[in-house]
Write a structure and sequence with these properties.
The complex is a heterodimer of chains A (88) and B (572). Chain A is an alpha+beta fold and 88 residues long. Helices cover 42% and strands 20% of the residues of chain A. Chain A has one domain (2-87): Glutaredoxin. Chain A is built from four helices and five strands; from the N terminus they run E-H-E-H-E-E-E-H-H. Chain A has a four-stranded mixed β-sheet. With 572 residues, chain B is an alpha+beta fold. Chain B has four domains: 12-73, no CATH class; 79-185, PAS domain (Beta-Lactamase, 2-Layer Sandwich), CATH 3.30.450.20; 206-314, PAS domain (Beta-Lactamase); 351-570, Sandwich (Jelly Rolls). Helix content of chain B is 40%, strand content 25%. Chain B has 19 helices and 22 strands. Chain B has a five-stranded antiparallel β-sheet, covered by helices on one side. The longest helix of chain B is centred in the C-terminal third of the chain and has 27 residues, at 459-485. Chain B is extended. In chain B, 31% of the residues are buried. The chains are: A alpha+beta (88), B alpha+beta (572). Chain A binds chain B through residues 5-12, 37-40, 42-43, 45-46, 50-54, 66-70, 72, and chain B through 1-4, 24, 27-28, 33-34, 36-38, 40-47, 49, 52-54, 56, 59-61, 63-64, 67.
């Protein structure tokens, strides 16, 4: 999965912290996370059709999914990543 | 990271210019998770697909700037030990590894302001200035304080501080850092002590002098050296202290490359001890004309290491005198052989002097002295007394009149065919115009009093000067009419031809600014006119250098005024 952020802006930092907590708790190292700073690489966001940051994209396994915002809503993130379904 | 901080686009009037961004906004406004996240305040940035950059939302932008500023101030304040003061500037806390070594180790500073401590280098006024800074809540840097510690040793500290505010923006005091700079101060004083005399002696010299270390770094330069800038156009002129002189010579490009290489090789020989000294004469083209310099390098052993003293002297005057002597010599040699001149006349480079019978010239010569007139030199100011007359040889002098107090317009041009100082010949010792040197070169100069005496005695001199005065008056009159009636291109062509006749060369240096001033027009007008002449292949203009390619063609492009002035001047 890929997380798009804007430097160390508040929501971006929050999103990183939230995602890391989720990964620690639910994925335990079986995931691959790439963080893309759009202040440095705006073209990557454009190529992936990302309009706002922070924004999390699940690249694989399919189906692709997308969550925007600071990822405070843990359930929404788990749902998008397809984890909640498995756990439940 | 080098974030590209773009302000969010707030001006709707401008959005039309960025359709990509507008599309993005439309999609966001239409709904979807992005819109919800924006409304929840969870978004930092929006991608502008048109410009390919990220646009930070105001909140995120503020946070980033704040974080950056805080970090910068932390770095700037980084040092020995840390302190905090309350709102009355009294020390409230201090901490840090350097507290003990700074000589500032007594606990008595807590509860005291800086000015209540026994520093001995601050006057009442100094403290007042500092307190004013604090009242203004300003950040201060490098406040240097001196005290004698309990062991009787002088200690120096340097204090930095910044104001602290709470969340309600209420002033809470100052915090900052203090460094012990005693070591640095002592070293500086030691260097200054030994250096001071050397520096004072060097500064008193008119020549440009600098000292190089074995690597070629300039470790000391005198005032004349520092005042000289690269404007002189000479190889490695005015290299600053701390810069590497050899590197500058090695990296010289274009015409200066060979010079630079020769100078660097000579200096290296001196530094290596292979030769005791090295000397190199070189000419350089400056905006003020050609100049000559001699560079002398001598080596000496200081503190064990080899040093090279580079001295650069302007020898333009001497060179000009040499040239003049050479000229006289050539003339003397040629006169018997060619003998085109009547036997009783002498050939000199100024036409008026050349027109005098030999005996008259010999008598006049005792009062004449060769001088170098440099570009920009003002020979006479309007209304000021005339102290000398000048017979130009290869220099060019403009006669200018002020139009409305600040703008000047050229009314006459004097070169080898004439004399500057005609009012004196007509009985007035005040110049109505400003005489400005346009082209650097040599002239023969004579003081006003002997000149008048000679004029009274010498009929031939009177005749020559009255004829020239007539020609000059015709030039004034024609120029005045020309400036009023003729097109810029024609006037420019006339001016270039007149200059050519006076400097006796098809090539000379001129800037657009100067031409604009001479012709009394704007710079843009000169650019257009010069461009047109260049297009017709009559002249070539490159970086202030003008070359006349087709004199006849240029004459055809010039107004009739050129011929009128030339004919009057040429008529005996």
């Amino acid at each position: 999965m890929r997380l798009y952020i804007a430097g160390s802006a508040p929501n971006s930092i929050q999103a990183i912290a939230n995602l890391e907590a989720i990964c620690r708790e639910h994925l335990k190292g079986i995931h691959k996370l790439e963080i893309v700073d759009i202040l440095e690489q705006p073209q990557r966001a454009m190529a992936d059709g990302v309009l706002v940051t922070p924004s999390l994209t699940k690249v694989s396994p399919l189906p692709a999914a997308n969550v925007v915002g600071n990822l405070n809503d843990k359930n929404k993130v788990l749902l998008a990543l397809g984890i909640k379904g498995k756990v439940a | 990271m080098n974030p590209k901080l773009n302000a969010p686009q707030q001006n709707p009037a401008r959005s039309g210019a960025r359709p990509g961004f507008e599309n993005v906004m439309l999609r966001l406004v239409k709904g979807g998770p992005e819109r919800l996240a924006i409304e929840a305040g969870q978004i930092d940035a929006i991608i502008d697909t048109a410009s390919g950059s990220a646009i930070l939302l105001p909140e995120a932008q503020r946070a980033l700037i704040e974080r950056k500023t805080r970090f910068r101030s932390l770095v700037a304040l980084c040092s020995d030990w840390h302190w905090e003061q309350d709102e009355h500037y009294r020390f409230a806390a201090r901490a840090g590894a350097g507290v003990g070594s700074s000589g500032f180790d007594d606990a008595h500073i807590i509860g005291k302001a800086l000015w209540e401590l026994p520093f001995d280098n601050m006057s009442e006024a100094d403290w007042q200035t500092h307190r004013n800074q604090l009242e203004w809540r300003a950040t201060f840097h490098d406040l240097e304080l001196r005290r004698v510690d309990r062991a009787g040793e002088v200690r120096y500290i340097s204090v930095d501080g910044e104001p602290v505010f709470d969340q309600q923006d209420e002033f809470k005091g100052y915090r900052g850092t203090t460094r012990d700079i005693t070591g640095r101060k002592q070293a500086a004083a030691l260097v200054q002590g030994s250096d001071r005399h050397a520096r004072a002696a060097l500064d008193a010299l008119a020549a440009q002098v600098c000292v190089l270390d074995p690597a070629g770094t300039v470790i000391m330069a005198n005032q004349a050296w520092r005042a000289c800038t690269a404007v002189n156009g000479s190889v490695a002129a005015g290299v600053r202290e701390g810069a590497n002189y050899l590197a500058v010579c090695d990296n010289a490009v274009g015409n200066e490359r060979a010079e630079g290489g020769a100078i660097a090789a000579g200096i290296r020989q001196v530094i290596a001890g292979e030769s005791r000294s090295f000397s190199h004469e070189h000419a350089s083209d400056s905006p003020a004309g050609q100049r000559w310099f001699v560079l002398t390098v001598t080596g000496y052993r200081g503190d064990g290491a080899m040093r090279a003293v580079v001295s650069r002297e302007n020898i333009t005057e001497r060179k000009r005198a040499e040239q003049l002597l050479g000229l006289d010599y050539t003339v003397a040699n040629q006169v018997p052989a060619v003998n085109r001149e009547p036997a009783n006349r002498v050939s000199v480079a100024n036409s008026l002097l050349a027109a005098l019978p030999h005996a008259e010239y010999q008598r006049l010569q005792t009062g004449l002295e060769p001088v170098t007139l440099t570009f920009g030199e003002v020979l006479y100011a309007p209304g000021a007394p005339i102290r000398h007359v000048y017979f130009p040889i290869d220099c060019l002098v403009s006669l200018l009149t002020a139009v409305d107090g600040h703008r000047a317009l050229e009314v006459g041009l004097v070169g080898h065919e004439g004399m500057v100082g005609i009012p004196l010949a007509l009985g007035s010792n005040v110049s109505p115009v400003r005489a400005l040197v346009q082209g650097t070169g040599t002239a023969m100069r004579m003081e006003a009093a002997p000149f008048r005496k000679e004029l009274l005695q010498s009929m031939p001199l009177q005749r020559v000067l009255y004829h020239y005065t007539h020609a000059l008056m015709a030039q004034f009159a024609q120029t005045a009419a020309c400036n009023n009636f003729h097109a810029v291109k024609a006037r420019l062509a006339r001016w270039l031809l007149m200059t050519r006749d006076r400097v006796r060369s098809n090539e000379f240096r001129l800037t657009h600014e100067l031409l604009a001033q001479m012709l009394g027009i704007r710079r843009a007008g000169v650019t257009a006119a010069a461009g047109a002449l260049q297009k017709q292949k009559l002249i070539r203009y490159r970086r202030g250098n003008i070359r006349i390619l087709d004199r006849k063609g240029l004459e055809a492009a010039a107004c009739k005024c050129y011929r009128v002035i030339k004919n009057v001047s040429g008529r005996p």
